[in-house]
Design brief:
With 456 residues, this protein is an alpha/beta fold. Helices cover 24% and strands 32% of the residues. It folds into three domains: 1-65, Beta Barrel (OB fold (Dihydrolipoamide Acetyltransferase, E2P)); 99-119 and 281-455, Rossmann fold, CATH 3.40.50.150; 127-266, OB fold (Dihydrolipoamide Acetyltransferase, E2P) (Beta Barrel). It has helices at residues 89-103, 164-179, 220-227, 283-300, 315-319, 334-346, 359-362, 383-392, 404-416, 448-455, and strands at residues 4-12, 18-21, 27-30, 38-46, 50-60, 127-136, 139-145, 152-154, 193-200, 207-213, 233-240, 252-258, 261-266, 269-274, 303-308, 324-331, 352-356, 371-374, 396-401, 419-427, 437-444. The protein has ten helices and 21 strands. 43% of the residues are buried.
Amino acid sequence: MQNTYTLRVEKMINEGIALGKLGQGIKVMVPYGVKDDILEVKIIKKKTDYWIGSIKEIKSPSPLRASPPCPYFGACGGCQWQMVDYKYQPVLKKELVVDSFRHIAGMSDIPILDTIPSLKSFHYRNKVQLPLKMTGPNRVIMGFYKRDTHFIIDIDECLLHIQKFNGIIENAKKYIAQRGLSIYDERKHTGAVRNFTIRGSERTGETLIVMVTTRDYLSRHTARDLMDMDSSIFGVVENVNPDYGNTIFGDMSSIRSGVSYYHEKIKNFTFVVSATSFFQINTDVAEEMVKTLEDTFKDIGEVGTIIDAYSGVGLFSISLARFAGKVLALEISPESSNAASKNVKINNKTNVEIITGDADEILSSLGRAEVLMLDPPRKGIGVGVLKYIEDQKPPYLFYFSCNPATLARDVQNIVEMGYDIEFIQPFDMFPQTYHVETLTYLKKKQTFLEKSKDSQ
Protein backbone atom coordinates (compact mmCIF):
# COMPACT_ATOMS: atom_id res chain seq x y z
CA MET A 1 0.00 0.00 0.00
CA GLN A 2 1.40 3.41 -0.99
CA ASN A 3 2.71 5.42 1.96
CA THR A 4 4.79 8.14 0.25
CA TYR A 5 3.33 10.97 -1.81
CA THR A 6 4.43 14.17 -3.52
CA LEU A 7 2.42 17.27 -2.72
CA ARG A 8 2.59 21.05 -2.88
CA VAL A 9 2.07 23.01 0.34
CA GLU A 10 -0.90 25.36 -0.10
CA LYS A 11 -0.72 27.30 3.14
CA MET A 12 0.29 27.40 6.79
CA ILE A 13 -2.44 26.62 9.32
CA ASN A 14 -3.00 26.48 13.08
CA GLU A 15 0.05 25.43 15.12
CA GLY A 16 2.22 26.63 12.22
CA ILE A 17 1.86 23.37 10.32
CA ALA A 18 1.94 23.18 6.52
CA LEU A 19 -1.16 21.95 4.67
CA GLY A 20 -1.28 20.32 1.26
CA LYS A 21 -3.81 18.18 -0.61
CA LEU A 22 -3.40 14.98 -2.54
CA GLY A 23 -5.08 14.48 -5.89
CA GLN A 24 -8.11 12.83 -4.33
CA GLY A 25 -8.66 15.84 -2.06
CA ILE A 26 -7.18 14.36 1.10
CA LYS A 27 -5.71 17.03 3.37
CA VAL A 28 -2.19 16.31 4.57
CA MET A 29 -0.62 18.20 7.49
CA VAL A 30 3.17 18.39 7.51
CA PRO A 31 5.27 19.92 10.32
CA TYR A 32 8.18 22.09 9.10
CA GLY A 33 6.80 22.38 5.59
CA VAL A 34 6.60 25.88 4.07
CA LYS A 35 3.97 27.42 1.81
CA ASP A 36 4.82 26.62 -1.87
CA ASP A 37 7.22 23.79 -0.99
CA ILE A 38 6.94 20.70 -3.18
CA LEU A 39 7.58 17.81 -0.82
CA GLU A 40 7.91 14.07 -0.83
CA VAL A 41 5.95 13.17 2.28
CA LYS A 42 5.78 9.94 4.26
CA ILE A 43 2.34 9.40 5.83
CA ILE A 44 2.70 8.56 9.51
CA LYS A 45 -0.93 8.74 10.64
CA LYS A 46 -4.29 8.61 8.87
CA LYS A 47 -7.30 10.26 10.50
CA THR A 48 -10.86 10.52 9.25
CA ASP A 49 -10.63 14.11 7.97
CA TYR A 50 -6.91 14.41 7.28
CA TRP A 51 -3.56 12.65 7.23
CA ILE A 52 -0.35 13.58 9.03
CA GLY A 53 2.93 13.34 7.17
CA SER A 54 6.64 13.94 7.70
CA ILE A 55 9.05 15.39 5.16
CA LYS A 56 11.05 12.68 3.41
CA GLU A 57 12.55 15.03 0.81
CA ILE A 58 12.15 18.65 -0.24
CA LYS A 59 11.72 18.23 -4.00
CA SER A 60 11.48 21.95 -4.72
CA PRO A 61 11.98 24.42 -1.85
CA SER A 62 9.62 27.34 -1.44
CA PRO A 63 11.06 30.83 -2.14
CA LEU A 64 9.89 31.58 1.41
CA ARG A 65 12.23 28.95 2.86
CA ALA A 66 15.43 29.72 4.81
CA SER A 67 18.17 27.70 6.52
CA PRO A 68 17.50 27.52 10.28
CA PRO A 69 20.52 28.96 12.13
CA CYS A 70 19.83 27.07 15.38
CA PRO A 71 21.45 23.61 15.77
CA TYR A 72 18.53 22.46 17.94
CA PHE A 73 15.79 23.44 15.50
CA GLY A 74 13.49 20.55 14.64
CA ALA A 75 14.33 18.68 17.83
CA CYS A 76 13.60 21.48 20.31
CA GLY A 77 9.96 22.60 20.48
CA GLY A 78 10.78 26.18 21.47
CA CYS A 79 10.14 27.55 17.98
CA GLN A 80 8.59 26.22 14.77
CA TRP A 81 9.32 28.66 11.92
CA GLN A 82 13.08 29.11 11.66
CA MET A 83 12.83 27.43 8.24
CA VAL A 84 10.82 30.48 7.02
CA ASP A 85 12.73 33.59 5.89
CA TYR A 86 11.83 36.28 8.44
CA LYS A 87 10.66 38.80 5.85
CA TYR A 88 7.82 36.39 4.99
CA GLN A 89 6.81 35.42 8.55
CA PRO A 90 4.66 38.56 9.12
CA VAL A 91 2.91 37.87 5.78
CA LEU A 92 2.11 34.29 6.77
CA LYS A 93 0.88 35.42 10.18
CA LYS A 94 -1.58 37.82 8.58
CA GLU A 95 -2.82 34.86 6.51
CA LEU A 96 -3.33 32.85 9.73
CA VAL A 97 -5.51 35.66 11.12
CA VAL A 98 -7.44 35.97 7.84
CA ASP A 99 -7.97 32.20 7.80
CA SER A 100 -9.27 32.13 11.39
CA PHE A 101 -11.83 34.87 10.78
CA ARG A 102 -12.96 33.24 7.52
CA HIS A 103 -13.37 29.71 8.85
CA ILE A 104 -14.39 30.32 12.48
CA ALA A 105 -16.34 33.58 12.30
CA GLY A 106 -17.45 33.35 8.65
CA MET A 107 -15.97 36.81 8.02
CA SER A 108 -13.97 37.57 4.90
CA ASP A 109 -14.58 41.19 3.91
CA ILE A 110 -12.99 42.78 6.99
CA PRO A 111 -10.11 45.28 7.40
CA ILE A 112 -7.13 43.11 8.40
CA LEU A 113 -3.96 45.20 8.15
CA ASP A 114 -0.44 44.01 7.33
CA THR A 115 1.42 42.57 10.31
CA ILE A 116 3.73 44.99 12.10
CA PRO A 117 7.06 43.11 12.22
CA SER A 118 9.38 42.79 15.18
CA LEU A 119 12.43 45.05 15.28
CA LYS A 120 14.47 41.94 16.15
CA SER A 121 13.84 38.54 14.59
CA PHE A 122 16.18 36.89 17.14
CA HIS A 123 17.18 37.66 20.73
CA TYR A 124 13.88 39.40 21.49
CA ARG A 125 12.37 37.40 24.35
CA ASN A 126 12.60 39.08 27.76
CA LYS A 127 11.70 35.86 29.58
CA VAL A 128 12.94 32.27 29.31
CA GLN A 129 11.57 29.32 31.31
CA LEU A 130 13.67 26.16 31.45
CA PRO A 131 12.77 22.79 32.96
CA LEU A 132 15.66 20.85 34.50
CA LYS A 133 16.61 17.20 34.77
CA MET A 134 19.37 15.29 36.55
CA THR A 135 20.92 12.83 34.09
CA GLY A 136 23.83 11.58 36.19
CA PRO A 137 26.15 12.49 39.06
CA ASN A 138 26.90 16.22 38.80
CA ARG A 139 25.16 16.30 35.43
CA VAL A 140 22.17 18.61 34.97
CA ILE A 141 20.45 19.49 31.72
CA MET A 142 18.32 22.57 31.11
CA GLY A 143 16.44 23.39 27.94
CA PHE A 144 13.13 23.09 26.15
CA TYR A 145 10.72 20.23 25.62
CA LYS A 146 10.82 18.36 22.35
CA ARG A 147 7.64 19.09 20.40
CA ASP A 148 4.57 17.37 21.88
CA THR A 149 6.65 15.58 24.56
CA HIS A 150 8.16 16.12 28.00
CA PHE A 151 11.62 15.09 26.77
CA ILE A 152 14.05 17.92 27.56
CA ILE A 153 16.43 19.02 24.80
CA ASP A 154 19.54 20.30 26.58
CA ILE A 155 20.70 23.63 25.16
CA ASP A 156 23.90 25.64 25.42
CA GLU A 157 22.44 28.65 23.62
CA CYS A 158 19.02 29.86 22.47
CA LEU A 159 18.66 32.42 19.69
CA LEU A 160 15.26 33.71 20.80
CA HIS A 161 15.86 35.24 24.20
CA ILE A 162 18.04 38.19 25.25
CA GLN A 163 21.62 37.27 24.46
CA LYS A 164 22.88 37.92 28.01
CA PHE A 165 20.64 35.09 29.26
CA ASN A 166 22.80 32.46 27.52
CA GLY A 167 25.79 33.09 29.78
CA ILE A 168 23.55 32.94 32.86
CA ILE A 169 22.09 29.60 31.70
CA GLU A 170 25.56 28.13 31.13
CA ASN A 171 26.80 29.19 34.55
CA ALA A 172 23.59 28.12 36.31
CA LYS A 173 23.78 24.59 34.88
CA LYS A 174 27.35 24.20 36.11
CA TYR A 175 26.59 25.64 39.52
CA ILE A 176 23.43 23.58 40.11
CA ALA A 177 25.30 20.40 39.15
CA GLN A 178 28.37 21.17 41.28
CA ARG A 179 26.26 22.03 44.32
CA GLY A 180 24.26 18.85 43.86
CA LEU A 181 20.92 20.63 44.21
CA SER A 182 17.89 18.34 44.33
CA ILE A 183 16.24 18.26 40.88
CA TYR A 184 12.56 17.47 40.38
CA ASP A 185 11.57 14.20 38.71
CA GLU A 186 8.10 14.67 37.24
CA ARG A 187 7.44 10.93 36.87
CA LYS A 188 8.19 10.16 40.51
CA HIS A 189 7.15 13.61 41.79
CA THR A 190 10.33 13.76 43.87
CA GLY A 191 13.08 16.36 44.15
CA ALA A 192 12.97 20.11 44.61
CA VAL A 193 14.08 22.34 41.70
CA ARG A 194 11.68 22.07 38.78
CA ASN A 195 12.20 25.20 36.66
CA PHE A 196 14.77 27.96 36.12
CA THR A 197 13.27 31.21 34.82
CA ILE A 198 15.14 34.34 33.75
CA ARG A 199 13.37 37.66 33.17
CA GLY A 200 14.97 40.95 32.27
CA SER A 201 15.29 44.07 30.19
CA GLU A 202 17.89 45.11 27.65
CA ARG A 203 16.70 48.70 28.04
CA THR A 204 17.40 48.92 31.78
CA GLY A 205 20.06 46.19 31.98
CA GLU A 206 18.27 44.50 34.90
CA THR A 207 17.78 40.74 35.26
CA LEU A 208 15.71 38.64 37.67
CA ILE A 209 16.04 34.89 38.38
CA VAL A 210 13.05 32.84 39.51
CA MET A 211 13.70 29.32 40.78
CA VAL A 212 10.55 27.19 40.88
CA THR A 213 10.69 24.50 43.56
CA THR A 214 8.30 21.94 45.01
CA ARG A 215 8.86 23.22 48.58
CA ASP A 216 10.78 25.88 50.50
CA TYR A 217 14.24 24.78 49.45
CA LEU A 218 16.48 27.54 48.16
CA SER A 219 19.00 28.80 50.74
CA ARG A 220 20.06 32.43 50.87
CA HIS A 221 23.66 31.29 50.33
CA THR A 222 22.68 29.58 47.06
CA ALA A 223 20.65 32.62 46.01
CA ARG A 224 23.61 34.94 46.59
CA ASP A 225 25.82 32.63 44.53
CA LEU A 226 23.29 32.78 41.69
CA MET A 227 23.23 36.57 41.91
CA ASP A 228 27.00 36.63 41.61
CA MET A 229 26.84 34.90 38.20
CA ASP A 230 26.21 38.22 36.43
CA SER A 231 26.31 41.86 37.49
CA SER A 232 22.91 42.44 35.80
CA ILE A 233 21.10 40.11 38.24
CA PHE A 234 19.21 42.27 40.73
CA GLY A 235 17.30 39.53 42.51
CA VAL A 236 16.64 35.83 43.05
CA VAL A 237 13.10 34.73 43.89
CA GLU A 238 11.90 31.28 44.92
CA ASN A 239 8.44 30.33 43.67
CA VAL A 240 6.91 27.24 45.26
CA ASN A 241 4.76 24.95 43.11
CA PRO A 242 4.08 21.56 44.78
CA ASP A 243 1.37 20.51 42.31
CA TYR A 244 1.39 17.89 39.58
CA GLY A 245 0.83 19.13 36.03
CA ASN A 246 2.27 21.53 33.48
CA THR A 247 1.64 24.86 35.21
CA ILE A 248 5.05 26.41 35.83
CA PHE A 249 4.43 28.90 38.65
CA GLY A 250 2.75 28.27 41.97
CA ASP A 251 0.94 30.79 44.17
CA MET A 252 3.72 31.54 46.67
CA SER A 253 6.87 33.54 45.93
CA SER A 254 9.55 34.85 48.30
CA ILE A 255 12.73 36.89 47.89
CA ARG A 256 15.88 34.88 48.51
CA SER A 257 18.36 37.60 47.57
CA GLY A 258 18.16 41.15 46.23
CA VAL A 259 14.76 42.32 44.97
CA SER A 260 11.69 40.55 43.56
CA TYR A 261 11.35 42.53 40.33
CA TYR A 262 13.12 44.22 37.44
CA HIS A 263 12.32 47.48 35.64
CA GLU A 264 11.27 47.80 32.01
CA LYS A 265 10.98 50.91 29.85
CA ILE A 266 8.20 51.48 27.30
CA LYS A 267 8.33 54.90 25.63
CA ASN A 268 8.66 57.37 28.52
CA PHE A 269 7.09 55.02 31.09
CA THR A 270 8.83 52.78 33.64
CA PHE A 271 7.30 49.48 34.74
CA VAL A 272 8.06 47.16 37.63
CA VAL A 273 7.78 43.54 36.44
CA SER A 274 7.70 41.04 39.29
CA ALA A 275 8.64 37.36 39.36
CA THR A 276 5.40 35.81 38.11
CA SER A 277 3.47 38.81 36.78
CA PHE A 278 2.37 39.01 33.15
CA PHE A 279 4.27 41.25 30.77
CA GLN A 280 4.52 41.16 26.97
CA ILE A 281 7.40 38.92 25.90
CA ASN A 282 8.78 41.25 23.20
CA THR A 283 9.43 44.74 24.55
CA ASP A 284 9.92 46.38 21.13
CA VAL A 285 6.59 45.05 19.86
CA ALA A 286 4.85 45.98 23.12
CA GLU A 287 5.94 49.54 22.40
CA GLU A 288 4.44 49.30 18.88
CA MET A 289 1.17 48.13 20.45
CA VAL A 290 1.13 51.16 22.74
CA LYS A 291 1.86 53.48 19.78
CA THR A 292 -1.04 51.97 17.80
CA LEU A 293 -3.40 52.53 20.73
CA GLU A 294 -2.22 56.10 21.24
CA ASP A 295 -2.66 56.93 17.55
CA THR A 296 -6.20 55.56 17.64
CA PHE A 297 -7.06 57.43 20.84
CA LYS A 298 -5.96 60.70 19.22
CA ASP A 299 -8.93 60.26 16.88
CA ILE A 300 -11.32 59.21 19.66
CA GLY A 301 -10.35 62.09 21.94
CA GLU A 302 -10.65 62.21 25.72
CA VAL A 303 -13.21 59.93 27.34
CA GLY A 304 -14.70 59.67 30.81
CA THR A 305 -13.78 56.10 31.77
CA ILE A 306 -11.54 53.37 30.37
CA ILE A 307 -11.84 49.87 31.81
CA ASP A 308 -8.75 47.71 31.24
CA ALA A 309 -10.20 44.29 31.98
CA TYR A 310 -6.99 42.21 31.95
CA SER A 311 -4.47 44.83 32.97
CA GLY A 312 -1.39 42.84 34.03
CA VAL A 313 1.18 45.28 35.45
CA GLY A 314 -0.69 48.22 33.92
CA LEU A 315 1.01 48.71 30.56
CA PHE A 316 -2.09 49.90 28.69
CA SER A 317 -3.82 51.48 31.71
CA ILE A 318 -0.87 53.75 32.40
CA SER A 319 -0.06 54.46 28.74
CA LEU A 320 -3.64 55.58 28.01
CA ALA A 321 -4.40 57.38 31.28
CA ARG A 322 -3.91 60.79 29.66
CA PHE A 323 -6.90 60.11 27.38
CA ALA A 324 -9.40 59.46 30.21
CA GLY A 325 -10.92 61.03 33.27
CA LYS A 326 -10.27 57.73 35.05
CA VAL A 327 -8.98 54.26 34.26
CA LEU A 328 -10.16 51.14 36.10
CA ALA A 329 -7.52 48.42 35.79
CA LEU A 330 -8.77 44.90 36.61
CA GLU A 331 -6.31 42.09 37.26
CA ILE A 332 -6.93 38.61 38.66
CA SER A 333 -3.32 37.95 39.74
CA PRO A 334 -2.50 39.55 43.12
CA GLU A 335 1.19 39.73 42.19
CA SER A 336 0.50 41.51 38.88
CA SER A 337 -2.01 43.76 40.62
CA ASN A 338 0.58 44.68 43.26
CA ALA A 339 3.13 45.50 40.53
CA ALA A 340 0.50 47.60 38.74
CA SER A 341 -0.07 49.64 41.92
CA LYS A 342 3.66 50.36 42.11
CA ASN A 343 3.68 51.35 38.44
CA VAL A 344 0.82 53.80 38.94
CA LYS A 345 2.93 55.55 41.60
CA ILE A 346 6.18 55.40 39.63
CA ASN A 347 4.51 57.01 36.61
CA ASN A 348 2.40 59.42 38.69
CA LYS A 349 -0.94 58.38 37.16
CA THR A 350 -3.37 59.50 39.85
CA ASN A 351 -6.43 58.73 37.71
CA VAL A 352 -5.68 54.98 37.48
CA GLU A 353 -7.36 52.69 40.01
CA ILE A 354 -6.15 49.09 40.39
CA ILE A 355 -8.84 46.50 41.22
CA THR A 356 -7.82 42.92 42.04
CA GLY A 357 -10.24 40.26 40.87
CA ASP A 358 -11.75 38.31 37.97
CA ALA A 359 -13.05 40.55 35.16
CA ASP A 360 -15.81 38.01 34.50
CA GLU A 361 -17.17 38.60 38.01
CA ILE A 362 -16.32 42.27 38.59
CA LEU A 363 -17.28 44.05 35.36
CA SER A 364 -21.03 43.99 35.96
CA SER A 365 -20.61 46.11 39.12
CA LEU A 366 -18.56 48.89 37.51
CA GLY A 367 -21.10 50.63 35.31
CA ARG A 368 -20.66 51.80 31.73
CA ALA A 369 -17.28 52.80 30.36
CA GLU A 370 -16.68 54.59 27.08
CA VAL A 371 -13.73 52.29 26.34
CA LEU A 372 -13.26 48.62 27.22
CA MET A 373 -9.75 47.17 26.85
CA LEU A 374 -9.43 43.38 26.60
CA ASP A 375 -6.22 41.35 26.68
CA PRO A 376 -7.33 37.92 27.93
CA PRO A 377 -5.36 34.65 28.08
CA ARG A 378 -5.42 32.29 25.08
CA LYS A 379 -8.84 30.87 25.99
CA GLY A 380 -10.44 34.26 25.26
CA ILE A 381 -13.06 36.22 27.19
CA GLY A 382 -15.65 34.66 29.49
CA VAL A 383 -19.43 34.89 29.63
CA GLY A 384 -19.32 37.64 32.26
CA VAL A 385 -17.31 39.91 29.96
CA LEU A 386 -19.60 39.17 27.01
CA LYS A 387 -22.65 39.93 29.15
CA TYR A 388 -21.13 43.26 30.20
CA ILE A 389 -20.61 44.20 26.54
CA GLU A 390 -24.16 43.19 25.68
CA ASP A 391 -25.69 45.08 28.64
CA GLN A 392 -23.54 48.22 28.75
CA LYS A 393 -22.58 48.60 25.08
CA PRO A 394 -19.32 50.55 25.58
CA PRO A 395 -18.82 52.73 22.47
CA TYR A 396 -15.23 51.57 21.86
CA LEU A 397 -13.64 48.13 22.28
CA PHE A 398 -9.98 47.16 21.96
CA TYR A 399 -9.29 43.42 22.03
CA PHE A 400 -5.71 42.07 22.10
CA SER A 401 -5.28 38.34 21.55
CA CYS A 402 -2.45 35.85 21.05
CA ASN A 403 -4.89 33.21 19.73
CA PRO A 404 -6.57 33.96 16.36
CA ALA A 405 -9.09 31.14 16.84
CA THR A 406 -10.59 32.38 20.12
CA LEU A 407 -10.29 35.98 18.89
CA ALA A 408 -12.39 35.19 15.81
CA ARG A 409 -14.99 33.40 17.94
CA ASP A 410 -15.26 36.27 20.44
CA VAL A 411 -15.27 39.03 17.80
CA GLN A 412 -18.08 37.26 15.95
CA ASN A 413 -20.14 37.35 19.17
CA ILE A 414 -19.33 41.04 19.74
CA VAL A 415 -20.22 42.01 16.17
CA GLU A 416 -23.59 40.27 16.59
CA MET A 417 -24.21 42.55 19.60
CA GLY A 418 -24.08 45.60 17.33
CA TYR A 419 -20.43 46.47 16.70
CA ASP A 420 -18.40 47.24 13.58
CA ILE A 421 -14.79 46.19 13.12
CA GLU A 422 -12.71 49.32 12.47
CA PHE A 423 -9.47 47.42 11.93
CA ILE A 424 -7.62 44.24 12.85
CA GLN A 425 -3.89 44.81 13.38
CA PRO A 426 -1.55 41.80 13.74
CA PHE A 427 1.81 42.26 15.49
CA ASP A 428 4.73 39.85 15.24
CA MET A 429 5.31 39.52 18.97
CA PHE A 430 6.83 36.04 18.53
CA PRO A 431 9.31 35.78 15.58
CA GLN A 432 10.43 32.28 14.53
CA THR A 433 7.16 30.83 15.89
CA TYR A 434 3.64 30.59 14.46
CA HIS A 435 2.21 32.71 17.28
CA VAL A 436 0.79 36.14 16.45
CA GLU A 437 -0.53 38.97 18.62
CA THR A 438 -3.57 40.74 17.18
CA LEU A 439 -5.45 43.92 18.07
CA THR A 440 -9.08 44.26 16.99
CA TYR A 441 -10.64 47.71 17.29
CA LEU A 442 -14.46 47.76 17.34
CA LYS A 443 -17.00 50.58 17.54
CA LYS A 444 -20.63 50.33 18.57
CA LYS A 445 -23.04 50.89 15.70
CA GLN A 446 -25.01 54.08 16.05
CA THR A 447 -28.79 53.85 16.39
CA PHE A 448 -31.03 56.07 14.28
CA LEU A 449 -31.59 58.37 17.28
CA GLU A 450 -27.85 58.65 17.97
CA LYS A 451 -27.16 59.52 14.32
CA SER A 452 -29.89 62.15 14.39
CA LYS A 453 -28.46 63.67 17.58
CA ASP A 454 -24.94 63.81 16.08
CA SER A 455 -26.20 65.55 12.96
CA GLN A 456 -27.96 68.33 14.91
